[in-house]
Structures are given as structure tokens and as C-alpha cells.
Write a structure and sequence with these properties.
Helices cover about 80% and strands about 0% of the residues. By secondary structure, the chain is mainly α. The N and C termini lie far apart (about 145 Å). It folds into 2 domains: about 1-75; about 85-200.
């Protein structure tokens, strides 16, 4: 009898031992609703800040991309000093020299004064030396032309005031033999533009 009673008590204790407590469904649902409301409130507050942050990040990324792109372009093309100023100066010099030599060939006569040509040739001689020493003079074709011009201009600059017929003929022969005027025109293909007329006499 004691055993039966003990078994019943044991059976009841086992049933109560494994029985889960009552689930607080209402409390759980209230917590879920409260958390969702808190998330919505944070999202509403963070949305404009997030938009600004995304916009700033996009602008920053675009700036970095443009910076890298320009650096790539600059490194792919080796940096050289600007030759525009040298080319303009060379074009003006060649135009003035061409005008002087054309005028000398057509107007220089033996027995006539050559002072205007001699003075202009002296002025251009200094420029010729400068052109030979600047980056424009590094071009082999232009360098050869500049050296020939230096020789011709030195001859014209040293002409006596009365002008010897033999000297004038030698200078004109040198111009023709070396094709100086033709080379001048091909080296200065700028044509009758502002650079060409600016230095003309």
C-alpha cells in the first residue's frame, strides 16, 4: 500500500516537473510592438542623415575617381615644357627673316645703300643665336635652317654702305644654292595669319 501511494506521488511530481509555465503572450507581443515602434522612430531620424551621408560619400568617391583618372593621363603622357611660346617666337622670327631676305633679293642693287638691310640683319642675328639656344633649335631641320640663316644674315650685316656688286651676288647665290627662302616658307607654314603678319616689315 505504501508502494502504491509512493508511485502515485512520484507520478504526480513527474507530471508537474515537466509541465512548462504559462506563456506570457500579451507581454511578449507588447515588447515586439514597442521594439518595432522604436526602430521606426530611429529610421525616421536617421533617414535624412543617411541620405546626406550617402550623397557625401558618392561625391567623395567621384572626386577620388576623377583625381586618379587625371593622374593616369598625366603619367601616360610625359610632361614636357610648353613649347607654344617657342613656336610663336620662332614663327615671328622666321616671318621677319623671310621678309628681310625677300626684300634684299628684290631690292638690293650694287651701288645702292644697304643700310636698312644691314641694320635689320644685325637685329635678327641676335635673335638667331637665341633661337639656336632655345628648345626650338633642338629640331634638326630647324637647326640647320637657323645655322644657314645666321651665315646669310652675318654677310648682309657686314655689307658696306655702298654695296659691292660681287658681295650682293654672292649672298643671292648662297640664298638660291641653299634654298633658304623655300626652306623658310616650309618651316613657317602658318601662312598669312596673325603670327605671320605680326613680325612682317
Amino acid at each position: 500500500m505504501m508502494d502504491d501511494r509512493f508511485d502515485r506521488l512520484l507520478e504526480q511530481a513527474a507530471q508537474d516537473y515537466h509541465r512548462p509555465p504559462a506563456t506570457p503572450r500579451e507581454e511578449m507581443w507588447q515588447r515586439i510592438v514597442a521594439r518595432r515602434a522604436e526602430r521606426r522612430r530611429r529610421a525616421i531620424v536617421l533617414r535624412p542623415v543617411l541620405r546626406w551621408g550617402v550623397g557625401i560619400a558618392a561625391v567623395l568617391a567621384l572626386g577620388v575617381a576623377i583625381g586618379r583618372w587625371t593622374v593616369t593621363i598625366e603619367t601616360s603622357q610625359p610632361r614636357q615644357p610648353s613649347t607654344l611660346a617657342y613656336r610663336v617666337a620662332a614663327a615671328q622670327y622666321l616671318t621677319r627673316t623671310e621678309a628681310l631676305l625677300t626684300g634684299f633679293r628684290s631690292e638690293a642693287r650694287p651701288g645702292q645703300p644697304h643700310m636698312q638691310f644691314a641694320q635689320q640683319a644685325r637685329d635678327l642675328l641676335g635673335t638667331t643665336r637665341l633661337m639656336l639656344d632655345c628648345p626650338a633649335g633642338k629640331d634638326p631641320r630647324l637647326k640647320g635652317l637657323l645655322e644657314d640663316l645666321e651665315a646669310v644674315l652675318a654677310q648682309i650685316a657686314q655689307l658696306p654702305s655702298g654695296g659691292d656688286q660681287e658681295d650682293v651676288q654672292l649672298i643671292n647665290q648662297g640664298l638660291e644654292q641653299r634654298n633658304v627662302l623655300l626652306r623658310l616658307r616650309t618651316a613657317n607654314p602658318s601662312g598669312p595669319g596673325p603670327v605671320r603678319t605680326q613680325g612682317a616689315l
